[in-house]
Amino acid sequence: METGVWILTGALVLLAGLLLLKVHLLHKAAEEMKEVFLDRLRTDSNILVDTSSGDPFMRSLAAGINTGLRRLRRERHRYRQGDLELKDAVTNISHDLRTPLTAICGYLDLLKKEQVSEPARHYLEIIEERTNVLKQLTEELFCYSVTMSSNGSGDLEELSLNRILEDSLSAYYAVLKGCRIVPEVSIPDTDVCRRLNRSALIRIFANILSNAVKYSDGDLRITLLDTGKLIFQNHASSLTEIEAGRLFDRYYTVETAWKSTGLGLSISKLLTEQMGGTIDCTLEEGILAIFLQFPDTDEKQ
After folding, report:
1. What mean pLDDT value characterizes the chain?
2. How many Cβ atoms sit within 10 Å of the Cβ of residue 114?
């Protein structure tokens, strides 16, 4: 009797050990599959998920994951192809619009020199204003498509953020004055230098200042820190938190910015990230703040 109990106990212990071993192997196989699956999601590879386990359920799970990966790759390919086609279409359309717009502007200049009635001159001014808006929007579309197609940040050089910011403010002085905005600027006495692309940095500052003109209630405070961080702040009662959170979305505009394509800050974000920087915004207590940060050369490395 005792011998039978010991045999039964030994069999149960052996069975429990085998079950624990199987569970351990299944856990190990599941962990391996998870790591491989995450790696396949991060990289653009045609390699599928495999498992070292001979368990039919685990192999069935791997087959199901591979089916999902194939579908994901097809959708990713379709998205990329569609995105490329959209970029090409935008580039071609904006490029094709440039020629007739240039001709229109030229004929408008000629008409302004002619002797016309006062109402006709007023109509010409309206046409000229609308034409300039259309020209600006076309340039934004073209710039955005070119920026999207670019994989790098262009030629880099040692630039003083202080000086480029001052030059940008000088270039926008007339526009700011026309909107009765007197910016408060805080800049360090010593130059804050970074290796950046000059034209890209000028474009970033111009777009941010243009954004301030659109949404500011009449104030603008600009702060440059020694760390290379820039802060642009202004009261923006026309914006909500949801609208502020979408300012960097391409083609997004709000009703108060009817002359905009919604590409200005999107272009700034692309250019900033291409140069290794970061850009973000917040809206707290009615104050819109855009934060721009460029790490120094040592931090990039």
Report:
1. 80
2. 9
Instruction: Tell me how far apart the alpha carbons of residues 247 and 240 are, in angstroms, rounded to a whole number.
Output: 11
Cross-strand bridge partners of residue 283: 288
Q: What six digits make up the tokens of 266? A: 């999107």
296 closest CA partner among 198, 218, 201, 192: 192
pLDDT above 90 covers what percent of the chain? 19
Asked if 150 and 203 count as a contact pair (C-beta separation under 8 A), the reply is no
pLDDT of 163 reads 94
> What is the 8-class DSSP label of residue 43?
S
pTM for this predicted structure? 0.58
In whole angstroms, give the CA distance from residue 190 to residue 201: 19
Give the Cα separation of 71 and 120 in Å (integer).
61
Q: What is the DSSP string of 212-280?
A: HHHH-SS--EEEE-TTSEEEEEEE-TT--HHHHHTTTSTT---GGGTT--S-HHHHHHHHHHHTT-EEE
Query: pLDDT tens digit string along 48-58?
Result: 777 767 777 77
Alpha-carbon gap, residue 103 to 137, rounded angstroms: 17
HSE at residue 27, side-chain half, CA atoms within 13 A, is 6
Bridge partners (DSSP) listed for residue 284: 287
- DSSP letters for 103-151: HHHHHHHHHHTS---HHHHHHHHHHHHHHHHHHHHHHHHHHHHHHHH--
Read off the pLDDT of residues 262-301 as tens digits, 9 standing for 90 and up: 577 888 888 898 899 999 999 998 899 999 998 876 544 4
The model's confidence at residue 256, banded by pLDDT at 50, 70 and 90, is very low
Q: How far is the C-alpha of 214 from the C-alpha of 136, rounded, in Å?
A: 15
293 contacts: CB under 8 Å, gap ≥ 6: 227, 228, 229, 230, 277, 278, 279
